[in-house]
Amino acid sequence: MEGVDYLADERKKTEFDVEEMKIVWAGSRHTFEVSDRMAKLVANDPVFRKDDRVMLARKDLFKNTLRKATYAWKRINELRLSEEEASKLRSFVDEPAFTDLHWGMFVPAIKGQGTDEQQKKWLPLAYKMQIIGCYAQTELGHGSNVQGLETTATFDPQTDEFVIHSPTLTSSKWWPGGLGKVSTHGVVYARLILDGQEHGIHGFIVQLRSLEDHRPLPGITVADIGMKFGSGAYNTMDNGLLRFDHVRIPRDQMLMRVSQVTRDGKIVQSDVPRQLVYGTMVYVRQTIVQDASIALSRAVCIATRYSAVRRQFGSSNGGPETQVIDYKTQQSRLFPLLASAYAFRFVGEWLKWLYTDVTQRLQANDFSTLPEAHACTAGLKSLTTSVTADGIEESRKLCGGHGYLASSGLPELFAVYVPACTYEGDNTVLMLQVARFLMKTVSQLGSGKPPVGTISYMGRIEQLMQCRCAVKKAGDWLNPNAVLEAFEARAARMSVSCAQKLSKFSNPEEGFAELSADLVEAAVAHCQLIVVSKFFEKLQQDIPGKGVKRQLEVLCGVYSLHLLHKHQGDFLATSYITPKQASLANDQLRELYSQVRPNAIALVDAFNYTDHYLGSILGCYDGNVYPKLYEAAWRDPLNDSVIPDGYEQYIRPLLKQQLRVAKL
Ligand SMILES: CCCCCCC/C=C/C(=O)SCCNC(=O)CCNC(=O)[C@H](O)C(C)(C)COP(=O)(O)OP(=O)(O)OC[C@H]1O[C@@H](n2cnc3c(N)ncnc32)[C@H](O)[C@@H]1OP(=O)(O)O
Ligand SMILES: Cc1cc2nc3c(=O)[nH]c(=O)nc-3n(C[C@H](O)[C@H](O)[C@H](O)COP(=O)(O)OP(=O)(O)OC[C@H]3O[C@@H](n4cnc5c(N)ncnc54)[C@H](O)[C@@H]3O)c2cc1C
């Protein structure tokens, strides 16, 4: 029935002010208002319809994406939207497109690695989309190992040009989004060669296609790399391949903020550390952490609403069956994901602050916080994307059979999201970077330089190696200090244990390789500590609205205690807690689940997602799932006719043949 809210009873149970929670989730009233306006603008415009996406063949799908992306750009200009509004609008269109890479990597690469002069020349063109750019780093043979890239940029002093060349098949650029069919330019990463000598990897702005007729320029071979995982999904993106045959570009198209090449072919290093060549990846990793909370909250919103609608077993005296959300097993799978979505939101907010802070420091030639920023962005990108990808798949299973339908929205959400575990750095490779940072920190303890920021707890290493958990009853696990100390002691002890094992190897690199699985576990423990501590810091803020802070305290408890329960092996093996204390944590966790239960629907309503953005029948706001599923089935092209195409050719002869066999 139109207009009936099938989740109304659930909404009546709410114990907090949902409108205020929407502000907390958005980050500020202003951000909430912008988001809300842009989401509605997209939802109400039929051009942005997306429910037919999974049915489209690749060429139609891609053309459809071009149409939407260019229409979005037209609307952005017509409505004179600010940068913030435009970026929100693009995200609510909810379709991976070349524009993601243009705005998300090409422009930031020029901003971060270009000199003032280079920015003045290229950014206005990019801002007006008179050129469209991609980020061409990965090659067929190397992605993780950036120093292993093979594309060369050889300086020719005769002509004052670089010659960009792909010397081998494996040096072909492979994967860059937007490259396959759209980009006119790319920031291309290549080995700099001056007078026969190599000088490491640098970025170069290279024009790839003609601005007149879009044909590849001489010496350039470019194409799409082909279909990817899932239907619809990331296939809206033209990930590309690219080869250079001695392509010449002017010297001033090397991005020269970090190092400059002079007219006579000499390299001049500025004060800026060489790792800034990797700066765009640091920037994007922090945006990926913010996006993780969005993807996870979408999946959780769908699974939570559907779990309240779905009933299975437990009817007594002809009464209604049990809502599946009331099963403790369903709660123990769903509520930690709900809590994780909130936790990632807050750690993403903090990481954005950290990134802004490090950027300001870099501008003032203070490079001291760069290693921590690298470790935090790498580690949190790895942690949050892994949990989110697994969480989307778990949400699908939480929806039973109907979760497997494309119309649940979950299969496509998973297929679009899961490469986040690989792009911008494979998650294991990134955790190993965190581990390196931790091992360096441990080795420097006692050197007189106290660790600061996210590793300041290491400054209390002696206390953290000896302390024992003081919890005596389940309720003691609600004390933030008890939880924080548990996570600090676990992380510190795992790092120290790795460092001790490492010290037994005469060759540290060999030791690092041998112990890498343990090192990743220590890095994960450290990153989980960051998320837990940032959630607690959030709770220190003034949070208005009836019951809002209370709900966040409950979610923070769920987040930290479910981790403690899941990783109790770590906490027990490092001797910080006893088996009895681990069991008390689990008792408290169950109690917290029952506090989440009446508020579950309101907690997902606070994400403020439109039905268009969710793209899920199971997650629709009014909970009117069954008629919508039934109607959607009839819209499938296979149901256009009662007798399927192919009946005469295949089914009829088959049945006839069986008849003949039966007669024999
Ligand atoms: C909004 C946009 C939409 C998103 C769409 C996403 C589209 C996807 C795009 C992409 O995937 S682009 C390609 C991304 N590629 C990667 O992420 C590659 C991953 N690999 C690396 O980042 C690096 O190669 C490495 C794994 C960090 C190793 O690099 P390298 O071998 O050069 O370094 P090390 O010898 O290990 O370390 C040296 C030193 O440098 C420090 N460091 C490393 N990276 C950074 C960094 N980014 N920033 C600051 N510092 C860094 C490292 O910690 C070492 O420090 P010390 O130990 O010497 O102090
Ligand atoms: C959808 C998508 C979009 C992308 N977009 C872009 C783009 O726009 N621009 C661009 O330049 N690139 C892009 N990429 C490429 C992406 O950045 C790389 O695929 C990524 O960095 C991983 O590198 P790889 O493919 O070389 O993986 P590999 O490093 O080959 O990983 C294979 C396996 O080896 C393991 N491994 C590798 N090294 C180590 C190690 N040192 N220790 C332990 N284990 C290790 C990994 O954990 C993994 O299990 C994109 C990729 C995808 C999937």
TrEMBL record:
Domain annotation Acyl-CoA oxidase C-terminal: ranges: 479-656
Keywords noted in UniProt: FAD, Fatty acid metabolism, Flavoprotein, Lipid metabolism, Oxidoreductase, Peroxisome
Gene3D superfamilies in alphabetical order: Acyl-CoA dehydrogenase/oxidase, N-terminal domain, Butyryl-CoA Dehydrogenase, subunit A, domain 2, Butyryl-CoA Dehydrogenase, subunit A, domain 3
Active site (record annotation): 424 (proton acceptor)
Top-level division of the source organism's lineage: Eukaryota
Membrane-crossing residue ranges in chain numbering: none
Residue ranges the record marks as coiled coil: none
Acyl-CoA oxidase C-alpha1 domain sequence ranges: 278-439
Residue ranges of domain Acyl-coenzyme A oxidase N-terminal in the record: 17-132
GO biological process, one term: lipid homeostasis
Binding site residues for FAD: 138, 177
A single GO molecular function term of this UniProt record: acyl-CoA oxidase activity
Location in the cell: Peroxisome
InterPro entries named in the record: ACOX_C_alpha1, Acyl-CoA_ox_N, Acyl-CoA_Oxase/DH_mid-dom_sf, Acyl-CoA_oxidase, Acyl-CoA_oxidase_C, AcylCo_DH-like_C, AcylCoA_DH/ox_N_sf, AcylCoA_DH/oxidase_NM_dom_sf
Cofactor requirements of the protein: FAD
Similarity remark: Belongs to the acyl-CoA oxidase family.
Protein name as catalogued: Acyl-coenzyme A oxidase
Organism: Oldenlandia corymbosa var. corymbosa
